[in-house]
Specification:
With about 220 residues, the chain is mostly beta strands. The protein has one domain: hypothetical protein yedk fold. It has four helices and 15 strands. The longest helix is centred in the C-terminal third of the chain and has 9 residues. It is globular, with a radius of gyration of 16 Å.
């Protein structure tokens, strides 16, 4: 799963990369956690738009109190699952998630550290996702996952669906079969940079890495 990523670029830089004419100011932080704001790119009536949304579809688990906060489902294991397939079939509910790095926890339980992944020669890149409007949090989004390639597999068995620039249009406007094919192909391992750190995965006041993600 992916429960932490960064966008270390300005809104104007992200907008220029994705061909968006309306860069918006967002309260999204550089480090994005489930249940917090992030930026996404969608296809609007007048072309591509940048919008601020909450990362994670709200989910109420059995036994939760009526006033309890829903859990953010921030990763999509399989686009054919009932929770996602209705949205995935309709291009208007697809999005591109701008990312500069994504992280996975590595190491012993209780002492896990952050290992960061980025793309070589790509200062910002796209993660394929879906979005909708929720009753609880308004517009929300989640990112599609796939089997890890050889670069990521030593740390985690899953990774985000990373898109080449020439695949952006296919994800946003292509057929359902098109995006299934993108989810099931592996991003080339030699295109990924890895940065292992001594930074603890769970910081004080930061969200833990236990979030429901695979439905």
């Amino acid at each position: 799963m992916c429960n932490l990523y960064t966008v270390r670029k300005t809104a104007a830089e992200v907008a220029a990369y994705f061909g968006v004419d309306n860069p918006v100011q967002s309260n999204a932080p550089e480090e994005v956690y489930p249940g917090t704001p992030g930026m996404v790119i969608v296809e609007g009536d007048a072309g591509r738009e940048m919008r601020s949304m909450t990362w994670g579809f709200p989910l109420r688990l059995k036994g939760m109190k009526p006033d309890a906060k829903p859990k953010p489902v921030n990763n999509i294991a399989e686009l054919t699952k009932p929770m996602w397939v209705g949205l995935a079939r309709k291009p208007q509910w697809r999005c591109l998630i701008p990312v500069t790095h994504f992280a996975e926890a590595e190491g012993e339980k209780g002492r896990k550290t952050r290992t960061w992944f980025s793309l070589k020669n790509e200062p910002v890149f796209a993660w394929g996702g879906l979005w909708r409007v929720s009753d609880e949090w308004g517009p929300v989004y989640s990112g599609a996952m796939t089997d890890a390639n050889e670069a990521v597999a030593p740390v985690h068995d899953r990774m985000p669906v990373l898109l080449h620039p020439d695949e952006h249009e296919r994800w946003l406007r292509g057929s359902f079969d098109d995006i299934l094919a993108l989810q099931h192909r592996k991003y080339p391992s030699d295109g990924i940079d890895i940065e292992r750190t001594s930074e603890l995965w769970v910081r004080k006041k930061a969200p833990a890495d236990e979030t429901p993600s695979l439905l």
